[in-house]
Amino acid sequence: MNSRKARTTPAGRWEPRASAIAAALLIAAGVMPCFPSAAGAASTTPNAAAELAPTRFVVALESAVEFEVLSLSNPNRVIVELPEVRMRLPAVADDSATGLVKSFRGGLSAPGRSRIVIEVRAPVIVERSAIEKTGRSHRLVLDLVPAASGKPPSQAQAQTQAKASQLRVQPPLPRPAMRPEEIAAKAYKPVIVIDPGHGGDDSGAIKNGIVEKDAVLAFSLALRDKLDASGLYRVVMTRDADLFISLDERRAIAERNKAALFIAVHADYAGSHARGATIYSLTDSTANALQRSASRDVVKSVLTGSELAAVHSIAGDEGDIKAMLADLAQYEVAGTKERTSTFAREVIEFMSASTSMRENADREANFLVLKTAKVPSVLIELAYVTNAQDAQNLKSAKWRDKVSDSIATAIVNYFSKPIARAPM
Q1: Which of 261, 355, 371, 388 shows a CA-CA span of 20 to 30 A to 337?
Q2: 77-83 and 113-120 as β-strands: parallel, antiparallel, unpaired?
Q3: pTM
């Protein structure tokens, strides 16, 4: 970082230890800092009371950026974290004329990151921090007030200190650059597509007073609400009403939304003795066929005619590039298969604690709705409509709450694993 601390010259004038681009303002409340004139003459020195006066620190920026502000003690300082951005720090003239600010420095703190460190004379509260636009440029404005002083605080100081007291946080007080809800809104959220089976004219299985399309929709909505309440995911429903959606369209919804998970929800039909939940994923043979198909699709369509001509003019033969892209497609499909297997195991582990499971509940099938090479996908058969006890469960709001909660927990646990967080 470049130092910005003022120093005294032999002639008694103050000069900033700063670069030529330092040209922002540092204003103590009621006191204008003393800048040398062109001839080097200094202005009058403010009284000592100005040292603890509320102080505004202004930094010119090339553009508006997100930032974070933290006020610390031992030693007393204010730290501003920003992305890498060109900035102009204040040009300090007289150290005694800068209010609460004692010295400051700024520069790169890490690749792609900048930091400003402001050393202050006493513990402070950052009363206000904002990016302001001035013409075509921007500036970062920090209003610093003493955390405590011997004289009655101003109304603004009193309000700030009262807020700190209510939060049981003693000054110096950390101040985020953005409100928590704004940060959460911009944070990455994996997309989860929930697909209630059947719908519209397709009722699905009917037995023991259960209509499959209605039972699975009620369960899917309960699961959606739990995931939405967590704030961790963006949930997309293939249907949230009694509508018919084709199987191809259900898969397409997942692929268009770049889903991190696709969960189809159904209820099974068999003899009355069959009972419990089952988790289905694609058979190995079908997954391998998808892998080969993805490779062929890449080879056929990933490069246009003009792109192939450009490759040929540079490398002479596009065969190596096509082979490399085909290998990449196979790798991506293999990753999807591994993610699917990992998630299926998580669902079985947590779901088995909330409801009965069919023997060997982790099964493979060639359900059309699962045949996507791009999205980890499972089909959950919640229960058997043909079993009296399972049918009662499907009617029970308490059972839906318990089982949907277990699946939501399985989803959270899945996304805590490195394989789920790796780029798809």
Answers
A1: 355
A2: antiparallel
A3: 0.52
